[in-house]
Amino acid sequence: MAGCAARAPPGSEARLSLATFLLGASVLALPLLTRAGLQGRTGLALYVAGPNALLLLLYRPPRYQIAIRACFLGFVFGCGVLLSFSQSSWNHFGWYMCSLSLFHYSEYLVTAVNNPKSLSLDSFLLNHSLEYTVAALSSWIEFTLENIFWPELKQITWISAMGLLMVVFGECLRKAAMFTAGSNFNHVVQNEKSETHTLVTSGVYAWFRHPSYVGWFYWSIGTQVMLCNPICGVSYALTVWRFFRDRTEEEEISLIHFFGEEYLEYKKRVPTGLPFIKGVKVEL
């Protein structure tokens, strides 16, 4: 993938992913087709099979692999919008679908624009980890079961709205961090300093040492507040706190190795931004 991406024209992956994301999101037109006489299930089947067949005709690997992922995320986003405006107890799950699909797609898009040298299919973060997948599945199961047995729990709009605000804040902060860091941002903690690696202390990095982690922290918890998932809400908070505590310490060891006293001075001035996490301890 890295070799193919290097030979592709600059920005081609970004344009390809955006076009196919919008293709998937065109499922928003399904209500119009339904009013025109097309049955809902038939129309949905066409929106699942049609774009996939089109992409198979237009692209070959690895571009097809990019296109099908972006198209799928666009489809999830479009379905989420439709569900959000439905008169059912699932409308807040529609908010969640939009948030989840936009998060994963924008991770790829911003990387393609901002740091194309590190771009790969993994930039979608769809295969982040087994733990991430289990956590997502658990939240879907909790929402479904509670929606069946206690549907009124899923209609506390002010709580869902608070979760949505957390998601928007977290997403905006993370993407601002990615844009500010530029080519210094990578989804994988770097153990070796590249020639272009510099210490970024401006923009959102003047507020927090790890703004991308702060954004993801509040985004992930916000998704569960949005879903009114009490069990996953608590478990997410504990799990992501532990994850980012360990991740922050791991990254700061590398940063101290890369930048020495410059990073130590920055570390004294600026907090991590994560609650009750101070980063790696430095013995004097």
Automatic annotation (TrEMBL):
<feature type="transmembrane region" description="Helical">
    <location>
        <begin position="66"/>
        <end position="87"/>
    </location>
</feature>
<keyword id="KW-0489">Methyltransferase</keyword>
<dbReference type="GO" id="GO:0004671">
    <property type="term" value="F:protein C-terminal S-isoprenylcysteine carboxyl O-methyltransferase activity"/>
</dbReference>
<keyword id="KW-0256">Endoplasmic reticulum</keyword>
<dbReference type="Pfam" id="PF04140">
    <property type="entry name" value="ICMT"/>
</dbReference>
<feature type="transmembrane region" description="Helical">
    <location>
        <begin position="16"/>
        <end position="34"/>
    </location>
</feature>
<protein>
    <recommendedName>
        <fullName>Protein-S-isoprenylcysteine O-methyltransferase</fullName>
        <ecNumber>2.1.1.100</ecNumber>
    </recommendedName>
</protein>
<dbReference type="GO" id="GO:0005789">
    <property type="term" value="C:endoplasmic reticulum membrane"/>
</dbReference>
<keyword id="KW-0808">Transferase</keyword>
<comment type="similarity">
    <text>Belongs to the class VI-like SAM-binding methyltransferase superfamily. Isoprenylcysteine carboxyl methyltransferase family.</text>
</comment>
<dbReference type="InterPro" id="IPR007269">
    <property type="entry name" value="ICMT_MeTrfase"/>
</dbReference>
<comment type="function">
    <text>Catalyzes the post-translational methylation of isoprenylated C-terminal cysteine residues.</text>
</comment>
<dbReference type="InterPro" id="IPR025770">
    <property type="entry name" value="PPMT_MeTrfase"/>
</dbReference>
<keyword id="KW-0812">Transmembrane</keyword>
<dbReference type="GO" id="GO:0032259">
    <property type="term" value="P:methylation"/>
</dbReference>
<keyword id="KW-1133">Transmembrane helix</keyword>
<keyword id="KW-0949">S-adenosyl-L-methionine</keyword>
<feature type="transmembrane region" description="Helical">
    <location>
        <begin position="40"/>
        <end position="59"/>
    </location>
</feature>
<keyword id="KW-0472">Membrane</keyword>
